[in-house]
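Input (structure):
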């Protein structure tokens, strides 16, 4: 008799393998505090929605063996702040949310997006979540997220905390909604095409301990008007600042011992590149064509 009851129970669980989960909202203010420190983000599928806030539907797939719930699709939602649930409950069993290559798309989220501690990666990766919400103000990362991959986040303002130690190539490529980015200390390299064609980007704060900027890193950031380097940067690679035609002036310090080809491609006569006075004699590791395809003024200080 007990075996039959167990079989019936297992059948019920299998029938619940694909379920609809309502995304919940928060009235949290725009701070770095986490909303995941209590039970507010635990959503019981057989009960009522947290605080009654229903904004859209996310379809999840439940793995009854590993107790993971994976986002597989979603509809559009209208929201201000949006919290991605850390857990869902089915018949009293907790399932931890995982991303599995899901992209959160919505033009109607206008506030803060909170990523749950159950997520480790953000961006175009099989076990990561990508966020494309161009009207959202910002994203709050948990300490568990340590790496960003291609086409990771498209919101207006991004502060990358010290807990993120790796930013991959093309991490923000074509993320045209980004207006400002602050990168905390600890990131030593800006990878290839990290900010490629971020046409909305106007200001970026780079880490103090940054060592290198790879090729095409800021290519096409045509509205970038403010950028500052730390005193340790050593290498700026090919085409790194090509088509950055709104930067009025850029200061290259004495720490920069390597420079690639056409670093400032398409710069105009209204722009200025300032170099240390003794760089009138080109450093040995600077490409002969470092200023090729640019008509910017070169001044020595």
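Output (sequence):
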């Amino acid at each position: 008799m007990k075996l039959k009851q167990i079989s019936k129970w297992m059948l019920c669980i299998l029938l619940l393998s694909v379920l609809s989960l309502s995304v919940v909202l928060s009235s949290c203010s725009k701070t770095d505090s986490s909303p995941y420190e209590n039970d507010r983000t635990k959503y019981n599928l057989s009960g009522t929605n947290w605080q009654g806030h229903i904004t859209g539907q996310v379809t999840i797939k439940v793995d009854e063996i590993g107790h993971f719930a994976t986002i597989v699709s979603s509809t559009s939602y209208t929201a201000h702040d949006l919290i991605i649930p850390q857990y869902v409950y089915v018949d009293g069993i907790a399932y931890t949310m995982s991303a599995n290559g899901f992209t959160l798309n919505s033009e109607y989220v206008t506030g803060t997006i909170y990523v749950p501690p159950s997520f480790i990666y953000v961006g175009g990766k099989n076990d990561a979540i990508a966020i494309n919400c161009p009207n959202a103000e910002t994203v709050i990362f948990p300490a568990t997220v340590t790496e960003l991959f291609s086409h990771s986040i498209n919101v207006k303002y991004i502060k990358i905390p010290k807990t993120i130690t790796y930013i991959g190539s093309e991490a923000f490529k074509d993320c045209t909604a980004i207006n400002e980015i602050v990168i905390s200390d600890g990131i030593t390299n800006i990878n290839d095409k990290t900010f490629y064609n971020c046409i909305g980007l106007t200001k970026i704060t780079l880490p103090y301990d940054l060592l290198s900027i790879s090729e095409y890193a800021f290519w096409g950031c045509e509205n970038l008007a403010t950028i500052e380097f730390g005193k340790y940067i050593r290498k700026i690679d090919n085409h790194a600042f090509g088509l950055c035609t709104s930067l009025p002036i850029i200061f290259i310090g004495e720490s920069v011992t390597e420079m690639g080809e056409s670093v400032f491609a398409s710069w105009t006569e209204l722009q200025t590149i300032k170099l240390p006075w003794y760089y009138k004699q080109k450093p040995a590791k600077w490409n002969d064509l470092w200023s090729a395809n640019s008509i910017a003024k070169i001044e020595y200080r």
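Notes: The first helix runs from residue 2 to 15. The first strand starts at residue 18 and ends at 22.
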